[in-house]
Design a protein that fits this description.
207 residues, elongated, alpha+beta, Pnp Oxidase, Chain A
């Protein structure tokens, strides 16, 4: 356990401070303690009818300007994001007994930013993304592998251009909530809400 988990009862482990700074500190610890994909996060969207939809994606950029992930715009989540550009994110780091919830609107990243990230990926990952008609019915796995093979024949070095329908979104938080597990389920929660002027208000919540 870390020092915060061993802190005396009643001592706040989550201060009223810059929430981006708290995220960076917790994320750095997660990168050291999580065995696989510390940047994995649940992405919740909603259909035009308000039905919930959730899946795991990977955080690929973060900072005071927001939290970035990438996807195929023709996928199910891409369609839901186009219809309702508001999302919720959830990080759960079991090794640290912590969660972070983030809520806010999305905006598409620039083409230059998307190109830079796409070109940084392994060539096989680029081929796989370009060949995928994500979320659409697939008659059999071989059909997808054949599409990848056809692209590989055209781009043997794997340098396939980024498809126009593949890019990223940046989530600008309107709220960030930190959750710290404590013994006997006496957990600690602090929720930060953007004040619309570049600052934050926060309060502790009952667990």
């Amino acid at each position: 356990m870390n020092a915060e988990q061993n802190s005396p009862e009643g001592l706040d482990a989550i201060p009223h401070a810059d929430p981006y700074g708290i995220f960076e500190s917790w994320f750095a610890q997660a990168r050291e303690s999580e065995l696989n994909d510390p940047n994995a996060m649940a992405l919740a969207t909603a259909t035009p009818d308000g039905l919930p939809s959730v899946r795991m994606v990977l955080l690929k950029g973060h900072g005071p300007d927001g939290f970035v992930f990438y996807t195929n715009f023709h996928s199910r989540k891409g369609g839901e994001l186009a219809a309702n550009p508001h999302v919720a994110l959830l990080f759960h780091w079991k090794s640290l007994r912590r969660q972070i919830r983030i809520e806010g609107p999305i905006a598409q990243v620039s083409d230059a930013e998307a190109d830079t990230y796409f070109n940084s990926r392994h060539p096989e990952s680029r081929l796989g993304s370009a060949a995928s008609a994500q979320s659409r019915p697939l008659p059999d796995r071989q059909t997808y592998l054949d599409r990848v093979a056809l692209l590989r024949a055209d781009y043997p070095d794997g340098n396939v251009p980024r498809p126009a329908h593949w890019s990223g979104y940046r989530v600008t938080p309107s709220a960030i909530e930190f959750w710290q597990d404590r013994d006997y389920r006496l957990h600690e929660r602090r929720r930060f809400v953007a004040d619309g002027q570049g600052g934050w208000t926060s309060s502790l919540l009952y667990p």
